[in-house]
Write a structure and sequence with these properties.
17 helices; alpha/beta; 2 domains; 7 strands; five-stranded mixed beta sheet; rod-shaped; two-stranded antiparallel ribbon; about 65% helix
Length: about 450
């Protein structure tokens, strides 16, 4: 049974390795938990509390607009919100809410909606959407279009019925006129006969009455008219949805896949520098390099900065390469503010570099650094929205994401690349990222041990 003794030895060694425990057990358990909670709304489907909230403003306030709103309320997966703190929303308010990312989509029913829908005139519903949540907004938009088409068809049928009733009335009036004319002729003939009898001049008069049998209405024309009208309403709907950017007010341009994916994966892999930083620090500490350096007239903070700066520069180079690849190879737009991109990039790499120094300060072995670096990088990435978009996650998960630098960096990049915002709009994101970095830095300076 020598093989069993060898196997037991290796099992004991593996179970004593913190890095192996983290990668084999803690990492998959953490990812299973986070991804399951994050994707819970997707698998639960629409309806109830998990329905997509849709703020709506009714500027028309007619029976027709209220009827349209009631149809939207009956749509699965959509939860209408018409007021905030018991006060009706205004167009300005819902536009601001969408611009701030609190809602992916908002709808405005304009004035004269009821009047124009009755008259068969074109009417445009105004919608504001968050381009960074394009997947969600496209679903809501198609649902509203479906409701609008069903709503329009009802009025089309009503107008056609009214036209048919008018035609029937005209036909009945014509038939009554014919009958009246026939009876007038009949009475005139009878009068002539009576006069002839009075004058003893009897002249038989033949009276012919046309017996006209009523013709059955031809329903073929009516059916053809209904079919043609239905096709026309589908090809050229009278109720349309004008989609505008909540931040700019212009007609929104949907982001492409690269504007969504390049920032996400850039933020995710920017934090993999923590493994390199931790190992580099560990190797030089174990080799005695730090002792030799510190024996010279070199302060501890200079050694610390000297070890940190290469990680910072490499991190910036990584981000530049990834964004340049997306821009020059796939034609990805770099957004509306290059200075805003620079700010978020500098802040992101600062946070990741400082986290790398924290890893180096806390963990003492190569296996610990390897295991915990991977665990931190992937867990923070999953929580921060780089694996699953934040707007898909439940509200509690979106709030938890705010404790990760990933969420702030990703929001900053999306504000520039997708939402079309400027430098001043991402200052807060940059400051928060720098704040994360300083917290990591102070803790690492406190815990750092330069001796073996």
């Amino acid at each position: 049974m020598q093989w069993w003794a060898i196997a037991k030895k290796d099992i004991r060694i593996m179970l004593k390795d913190p890095g192996a425990i983290v990668v084999l057990f803690m990492l998959p358990l953490m990812l299973i938990t986070i991804m399951s909670f994050a994707l819970m709304p997707v698998f639960q489907g629409g309806g109830g509390d998990e329905a997509i909230a849709l703020p709506i403003v009714d500027q028309d306030q007619t029976k027709d607009s209220i009827k349209f709103i009631n149809l939207l309320k009956d749509t699965d997966g959509i939860k209408l919100e018409t007021e905030n703190n018991e006060e009706d929303f205004t167009e300005k308010q819902i536009r601001k809410l969408v611009s701030d990312g609190e809602y992916p989509f908002a709808l405005v029913i304009p004035k004269e909606f009821g009047e124009k829908i009755k008259d068969g005139e074109k009417i445009e519903l105004i919608s504001y959407e968050d381009p960074a949540q394009a997947n969600m907004t496209s679903i809501i938009g198609r649902a509203i279009e479906g409701v609008a088409q069903a709503f329009e068809v009802e009025y089309i049928v009503t107008r056609m019925v009214e036209n048919q009733v008018t035609n029937i009335k005209e036909n009945v009036t014509n038939e009554i006129s014919k009958v009246e004319d026939g009876y007038k002729k009949y009475i005139a003939n009878l009068t002539n006969q009576l006069n002839s009898l009075t004058n003893n001049q009897f002249e038989p008069v033949s009276i012919e009455v046309d017996a006209q049998q009523g013709e059955e209405p031809d329903l073929t024309l009516l059916k053809d008219e209904l079919v043609n009208t239905a096709k026309l309403s589908l090809n050229d709907p009278k109720v349309t949805i004008g989609t505008y950017s909540a931040s700019e007010g212009d007609v929104v341009e949907r982001p492409d896949a690269f504007q969504q994916n390049v920032p996400g994966y850039t933020v995710m892999y920017a934090f993999f520098i923590i493994m390199y930083a931790g190992r580099s620090f560990l190797n030089e500490r174990n080799d005695g390099t730090f002792r030799r350096v510190l024996s010279a007239p070199v302060d501890h903070w200079q050694l610390f900065i000297g070890k940190m700066i290469p990680n910072y520069f490499i991190g910036i180079l990584q981000v530049v390469v990834l964004f340049a690849f997306g821009h020059f190879v796939f034609g990805m737009s770099l957004g509306s503010s290059f200075s805003g991109l620079i700010l978020i990039t500098l802040a992101l790499v600062w946070a990741s570099s400082c986290l790398g120094m924290l890893i180096a300060a806390i963990f003492k072995t190569d296996s610990q650094i390897s295991g915990w670096s991977v665990l931190l990088a992937l867990t923070l990435a999953a929580l921060g929205g780089t694996m699953v978009p934040l707007f898909i996650m439940p509200d509690i998960m979106q709030n938890i994401a705010l404790i990760t630098p990933h969420a702030w960096a990703l929001t900053g990049y999306q504000d520039i690349l997708v939402r079309g915002l400027g430098f001043k709009d991402v200052i807060l994101d940059g400051l928060v990222l720098f704040g994360f970095g300083f917290v990591f830095l102070f803790v690492s300076l406190w815990k750092m041990n330069y001796e073996k």
